[in-house]
Amino acid sequence: MNDPASPLQIVVLLSGSGTTLQAIIDEIRSGNINVEINAVISDQPDATGLTRAENVGIQTCALLPRDYPDRQGFDHALASCIDRYKPQYIVLAGYMRILGKSFVERFAGKILNIHPSLLPRFRGLDTYARVLEAGDAEHGTSVHFVTAELDGGPLIMQARVKVLDGDDEESLSARVKERERKMYPAVLNMLAAKRIEMKDGQAWLDDKPLEKPMEFDLSR
Ligand code: GRF
Questions:
Q1: How many angstroms separate the alpha carbon of residue 106 from the centre of ligand 1?
Q2: Which is deepest, 7, 157, 207, 209, by most CB within 10 Å?
Q3: pTM for this structure?
Q4: Is the pLDDT reported for residue 119 higher than 70?
């Protein structure tokens, strides 16, 4: 075990704009969380998230799926790339590619994701459109450990928002993302403090199995 006071070493995987990455960077630079980003890796060479990393001197790497014959070949290259940076955790932040079973098993309990819904509701894509279509009274976002089941791993923390009359995807996602930007760094800081782990296929908090996800309150 590392010294609990030493920063949590992470590698971030992303495909897009990287506002989630930026939130983590901002919290690190403000001294609010004990985390260090060893590298940012993308499957999209022109992802804005890579530029955000480069802007603050974080190492980056783009791995293109089309350069590999199949998913297994790509996942193997991705795993080798990640290993070079020796992270304690792999943090998915808008990474749009499904990770294969052998990849997930190789890093079992060491991969985190943030998904914009109150899981297990609305796994997969287009959660904002789907929640509005369904007429749910609330929506939100979830941080969970990644397993081979898509958006199905043990839940750690969730943030809820009310769906308001007149909400569209843009207004709803703005409120959810406001929470994501604080919640994900907060979970990473709890990992750094060794308060959270995945064991026996479930999330644990302070050495006890987490019966239900923690609730994130933005005003905290
Ligand atoms: C986040 O809203 C997260 O919920 C989902 O992907 C989005 C990433 O956005 N997994 P960005 O690329 O970080 O701006």
A1: 24
A2: 157
A3: 0.96
A4: yes
